[in-house]
Amino acid sequence: MRKLEEQGYEVFLPMFTRWEKTTRGWSMRQQVMFPRYAFVRCSRSEQSIAPIRSTPGVTGLVKFGNTLAQIGHETLSAIRHLAERQARAADGTGSPFQPGEVVSVSDGPLKGMSGIVSSIAADRVVVLLKLLGREKPVVMPCEHVTSG
To answer: Of 29, 34, 49, 137, which residue is 20 to 30 A from 112 by alpha carbon distance?
Structure first.
């Protein structure tokens, strides 16, 4: 990416943030929205695309037959807006879970049970579990819960 920018091309690599469960608990991780693809545009109308092919890290250009693939301004703007909106939403989220979400208990004495997230705190989640025929709120570490 940097090499293309140094050559004067405009480059856009859309990213998104997702929650990932690790051995130390849940953490946020940046990921490329379209793995192995970036959007590149010549910054000047007379600029050749030939140097792109020889740039380290570039394996090829997307083509349909002999025609280079192009993406409309509206579509690219929508992708950019989606990436920016997702990044803002991820900045304000302190938990991988949302109230009302169905989760499964993946660790601890209640492993295997399913319930609904009632509320969330920094590293804990309150899950409504059906125990002895009644729904009971159970507080547990986020690491003990998985989506679905």
So the answer is: 29
